[in-house]
Design brief:
The strands form 6 sheets. Strands 13-12-9-10-11-14-21-19 form an 8-stranded antiparallel beta sheet, with helices on both faces. The chain has a 5-stranded parallel beta sheet with strand order 3-2-1-4-5. Strands 7-6-8 form a 3-stranded antiparallel beta sheet, covered by helices on one side. It is built from 14 helices and 22 strands. It is globular, with a radius of gyration of 21 Å. The chain has helices at residues 11-24, 63-73, 89-97, 107-114, 116-126, 141-151, 174-192, 249-265, 297-304, 308-316, 396-408, 419-426, 429-433, 440-445, and strands at residues 4-7, 27-33, 47-52, 77-79, 101-102, 155-159, 169-171, 197-201, 207-215, 221-233, 236-242, 270-278, 284-290, 333-340, 342-343, 349-350, 353-354, 357-359, 366-370, 377-378, 385-393, 411-413. It is an alpha+beta fold. Bound molecules: adenosine-5'-diphosphate. Adenosine-5'-diphosphate is lined by residues 131, 156, 162-166, 168, 200-203, 206, 208, 232, 235, 275, 277, 287-288, 438.
C-alpha cells in the first residue's frame, strides 16, 4: 500500500479521498488554491500545500504546480478526483514520468476510452451496443448528409474530445446539419483543443443509464450494476439513483457484461463508468466512457456495499480486486441529490458567499458528502455543488419518502440552493412513478 497520496482536487471529493486514505492508514496531502485556503477539510488532511491563485488554470488545472507539490511532499500516488485534470492523459503521463502512481488508468487506456470516436470503435469490437452514426470523425458536409440520410434525422453532432455536455448540436434536417458541421468543429477546437466531430442518431425520448466498473492491474474487472441519471438540466445531472426503476436484472445484466468486456479489452484499471442512453424499448446505446470516479459514485456504494474510492486506491497499489462478480449484490435503493449553491427561481444563478447557517439532515439511511460547515464561504471560482445528499432504503418508494424527509431537515442561510427543487421532485407524480426521460426536468421547469 502507498505511504502518502496527494489529492489533486478540492471540495467534497477531496474530503471523500481524505476519508478513504484515513481508513486505509495512508497519509493524505491536499493541494489548495488561495480561494480555498480556509476550507475546513484541509485540516483533516495530513498536510496541505498551496498551489496558486484562485483561477483553476493557475492552480487545480496547473500540472507543473501539482507535480511540484507532489515532489515536495514526497508522495507515492496522486488521486485526481473528478473534473479538473482527472481525464487528461497528459497529467496521467506526467505522473508516470515522475514515478508517481496516477490513481486511475494508464495514459494509453485513458486515451483509448476517453476519446469518443476511439471509444465507439473499441465498444463495437467488444460487442457493446452503440448509436448508429458516422464510423469516425467527419469533416465533409456531403458525407455527413449521406450518413444522416442512412440513419435518419434527427442526428446530433458531437465533439470527439467533448465533455460537460458542451458543444453538442441537434440537427433535424439537411440544412441545419450542413450549417452546423463547420461551426461545431470550430467550437470544439476552441473548447477542447481538438476539432474532430462526429454524428450519431439523436434519441428524442431516452433515459440515461450508466454502468459502474472497476478493474485491477491483473486483467480482472467487475461491474457494480447501473445508475439512472435521467434527471438533468442542460445535460448536467441533478439526481441519480440505483438501481434503475423499471429495468429488470435480466435486461441490464448483458449490458453490464458488455461494459466489462470493453474495460478488459482496453487493458484498463481503476474505476470507470460506461454511459448509455436507453430508449422506450429498453434498447441501449453507449454514449461514452468516463475514465475516473463519478460525482454519483455513492449511490452505487450504498446499494452494493463496495467502497469505490478505497478500491480505486487498492487496485492502483497493485492489489487484486477484493470482490468477485458473484459477490456483488444489489441491496435496496439509493438516491443522490446534488445540492448546488444556485437559485432555481432565478435561472439557477450561482450563489457564492458566506453560509451563516448550515444545518444538515441525519438519521437512518442518510449520508451527507459535503465540505461545507457553518461559516464556510462558497468561492465564486468553481463548480456550484456544495453537498450531495445520499439516501438508502429498502425500496424506491421508501427511499423517495426518506429523501423528502431528509431534505426538509436542512436549514441553510442565506444562500439559495437546489434543495426546494429536490423536494418538489420527490413529490412529483411522474418522478415517483419512475422512468422519466432526460428532458423531464426541463419540461417541468418551463
Ligand atoms: P458529455 O461528455 O459532454 O457529457 P455525453 O455524450 O455524455 O456528453 O452526452 C451528455 C448528454 O447529452 C446525455 O446524457 C444526453 O442527455 C445528451 N445526448 C448525448 N447524445 C445523445 C443522443 N445521441 N441522443 C439524445 N441525447 C443525447
Amino acid at each position: 500500500m502507498f505511504t502518502r497520496i496527494l489529492i489533486a482536487n478540492r471540495g467534497e471529493i477531496a474530503l471523500r479521498v481524505i476519508r478513504a486514505c484515513r481508513e486505509l492508514g495512508v497519509e493524505s496531502v491536499c493541494v489548495y488554491s488561495e480561494a480555498d485556503k480556509d476550507a475546513p477539510y484541509l485540516k483533516l488532511a495530513d498536510r496541505a500545500i498551496c498551489i496558486g491563485p484562485a483561477p483553476a488554470k493557475e492552480s487545480y488545472l496547473n500540472i507543473s504546480r501539482i507535480i511540484a507539490a507532489a515532489e515536495i511532499a514526497d508522495v507515492d500516488a496522486i488521486h485526481p478526483g473528478y473534473g479538473f485534470l482527472s481525464e487528461r492523459a497528459e497529467f496521467a503521463q506526467a505522473c508516470l514520468d515522475c514515478k508517481i502512481e496516477f490513481i486511475g488508468p494508464t495514459p494509453a487506456a485513458m486515451a483509448r476510452l476517453g476519446d469518443k470516436v476511439a471509444c465507439k470503435n473499441a465498444a463495437k469490437e467488444a460487442g457493446v451496443p452503440i448509436f448508429p452514426g458516422s464510423p469516425g470523425a467527419i469533416e465533409d458536409p456531403d458525407e455527413a448528409v449521406k450518413v444522416a440520410e442512412k440513419i435518419g434525422y434527427p442526428v446530433i453532432i458531437k465533439a470527439s474530445a467533448g465533455g460537460g455536455g458542451r458543444g453538442m448540436r441537434v440537427c433535424h434536417n439537411e440544412m441545419t446539419l450542413r450549417s452546423n458541421l463547420q461551426a461545431a468543429s470550430t467550437e470544439a477546437q476552441a473548447a477542447f483543443g481538438n476539432g474532430a466531430v462526429f454524428i450519431e442518431k439523436y434519441l428524442e425520448h431516452a433515459q440515461h443509464i450508466e454502468i459502474q466498473i472497476i478493474g485491477d492491474k491483473h486483467g480482472e474487472a467487475i461491474h457494480l450494476w447501473e445508475r439512472n441519471c435521467s434527471v438533468q438540466r442542460r445535460h448536467q445531472k441533478l439526481i441519480e439513483e440505483a438501481p434503475s426503476p423499471g429495468v429488470s436484472r435480466e435486461k441490464i445484466q448483458p449490458v453490464c457484461e458488455a461494459a466489462v468486456r470493453l474495460i478488459k479489452q482496453a487493458k484498463y484499471h481503476g474505476a470507470a463508468t460506461v454511459e448509455f442512453l436507453m430508449d422506450n424499448k429498453q434498447d441501449f446505446y453507449m454514449l461514452e466512457v468516463n475514465t475516473r470516479v463519478q460525482v454519483e459514485h455513492p449511490v452505487t456504494e450504498e446499494i452494493t456495499g463496495v467502497d469505490i474510492v478505497k478500491t480505486m486506491i487498492r487496485v492502483a497499489a497493485g492489489e487484486k480486486l477484493p470482490y468477485k462478480q458473484s459477490e456483488i449484490k444489489v441491496r435496496g435503493h439509493a438516491i443522490e441529490c446534488r445540492i448546488n449553491a444556485e437559485d432555481p427561481a432565478r435561472n439557477f444563478m450561482p450563489q457564492p458567499g458566506p453560509v451563516t447557517k448550515w444545518e444538515t439532515p441525519g438519521g437512518p439511511g442518510v449520508r451527507m458528502d459535503t465540505h461545507v460547515v457553518t461559516g464556510y464561504v462558497v468561492p465564486k471560482y468553481y463548480d456550484s455543488m456544495v453537498a450531495k445528499l445520499i439516501v438508502h432504503a429498502d425500496d424506491r418508494t421508501q427511499c423517495i419518502n426518506r429523501t423528502a424527509r431528509a431534505l426538509r431537515e436542512y436549514n441553510v442561510e442565506p444562500i439559495k440552493t437546489t434543495i426546494p427543487l429536490h423536494l418538489r421532485l420527490m413529490e412529483n407524480t411522474d418522478f415517483r412513478k419512475g422512468g422519466v426521460d432526460i428532458h423531464f426536468l426541463e419540461r417541468l421547469l418551463k
